[in-house]
Amino acid sequence: MNDYRGIFADGLWRNNAVFAQMLALCPLMAVTSSATNGLGMGLATTAVLLAANVIISSLRHLIAQEVRIPVFILLIAALVTLADMVINAWLHELYKVLGLFIPLIVANCAVLGRAEAFASRQPVLASAADGLAMGLGLTLAMVVIGACREILGSATLFSQASLLLGDGFAFLETTLIQDYKGFLLMVLPPGGFLVLGFLLAGKRVLEQRRERVKSAAAGPVDSPAH
Amino acid sequence: MIGDWLNKPEIRQSVGYPVALLGGVALLVSAVIGIADALTRADIAQRQLEDLQATLQQVVPTAYFDNDLVRDVVVVRDGERALRVYRARRDGEVRAVSFQVSEPGYGNTAMRIVLGIDRAGELLGVRVVSHSETPGLGDKIEIQRSDWIRSFDGRSLTDPPPAGWAVKRDGGVFDQFTGATITPRAVVNAVRGGLEFFVAHRAELLDESPTQPAPRAEVGMRESQP
Which has the higher per-residue pLDDT, A107 or A210? Predict the structure, then answer.
């Protein structure tokens, strides 16, 4: 399959790791209390997904079926450990913000899921595209959920973004309502489940409406034949 | 090519192949992580030292020392725990000390708090280094979110008197937050515990001869506590 457009449509929408496959919920609930956290976790996961897909795809002819899952886990865990050490040593400012999230990437089933479902069967370039697309889709989902929870929970958006992205991005930090009392439920994990539930329902509604429009458009064309 | 050799059917279908593969990958991955660890260890240690230095400088003003604060360490046993105490010296004399205490917060997860105390037993500064208190409620103990933690500056075991070392709800002098009493109560307890530790080990901490008597009044006050 060299249909890169299809790969990106899958990763970002049709087969989105969160909204369609319902994977990665553990790190999702844990870190998306703000949009900035969601963005940080999403980007870190994207890097690991991309690297894991490339490595596993290039080894796919060697990996025996019987032990493929342990081999994938070993490779992914090693990548995450490497990322943790390298960021800690040489990108320490970023580590102070992301440090908490990096080990959580191992617990992200989306990475193993892509290794098993895509990278172990597809050529390297397509696997790289899939890793990138799935990672961006995951980042999108995390930022959207983080933004919803942050707006409802503390009436800010992208707070502390300059810590993650550098001072140039301080303009992203917005306070929507001054002296907002806070809606704690949204910041706590139940808020994550609530927001995810409503977003999933919203995606369903959108897709059903699109189906209906499609069948309605197809209808009149069919009728003259009768 | 080794790849072609590995893909020969008689190799590929042997019982040992998956075993050797898994073992080989594990060895390879361990070697890579070992090398990465060797490369990053010194840098990570250096970064952590810098972090520690930055934290200590928040609780001990630079006017108090001209030595290398992070390297002037004395380990003091206090009951079961051993505390690492960093000593701020100016012209060889210890002007202030800094150490970390930990206290279970809300939900019994440890928060780590760093104190800076001058020779007279007055607090120079208090900072919460890590905690897992409820976002939006308990996290007002962070300096980034609220000035509350500064209410300890200049306090000592005699100011306020022992009965006042509590949050207002418990009849003390320190504010609690709306919706969170347990967190500030834990911080107050931790800070008071730190001050008591300082008074009990004053001579040792200040690098004075042990014959010098500890201030009587403060010791007596400790004993009068419930």
Answer: A210
DSSP B150-217: GGGTT-BTTBS-GGGSSBGGGTSSB--BTTBSHHHHHHHHHHHHHHHHHHHTHHHHTT--TTSPPPHH
* Closest residue in chain B to residue A86, using alpha carbons only: B40
The full DSSP string for B50-99 is HHHHHHHHHHS-GGG--S-GGG-EEEEEETTEEEEEEEEEETTEEEEEEE
pLDDT for residue A223 is more than 80:
no
Identify the bridge partners of residue A103 per DSSP, sorted by sequence position. Answer: none
Question: What secondary structure letter does DSSP report for B4?
Answer: H
Would you list the domain boundaries of chain B?
1-59, 62-223
pLDDT tens readout for residues B36-76? 999 999 999 999 888 888 888 889 988 888 888 888 888 88
B47–A92 C-beta distance less than 8 A: yes
pLDDT number for residue A2: 57
Q: For chain B, how long is the longest CA-to-CA vector?
A: 86
| Cβ atoms B52, B64 nearer than 8 A | no
B25 compared with A97, residue with greater pLDDT: B25
Task: Tell me if A182 and B18 make a contact (CB, 8 A cut-off).
Answer: no
Question: How distant, in Å, are the alpha carbons of B59, B121, B156, B163, B212 from that of B215?
Answer: 24, 10, 13, 20, 9
Rounded Cα distance, B112 and B105, in Å:
10
| A102 against A179, higher pLDDT | A102
State the Cα–Cα distance between residues A110 and B201, nearest whole angstrom.
53
Contact: A71, B25; criterion CB under 8 Å: yes
Contact A21, A11 (CB under 8 A): no
Q: What is the rounded average pLDDT of the residues A168-189? A: 79
Q: Above pLDDT 70, what percent of chain B?
A: 89
Beta-strand pair B123-130/B81-90? unpaired
> Distance (Å) from the C-alpha of residue B179 to the closest C-alpha of chain A?
10
Contact A53, A128 (CB under 8 A): yes
Is the torsion defined by CA of B166, B168, B173, B179 positive or negative?
Answer: positive
User: Which site among A63, A65, A92 would you substitute to test the B interface, given the most B Cβ atoms closer than 10 Å to its Cβ?
Assistant: A92
Structure token pair of residue B194: 């730190």
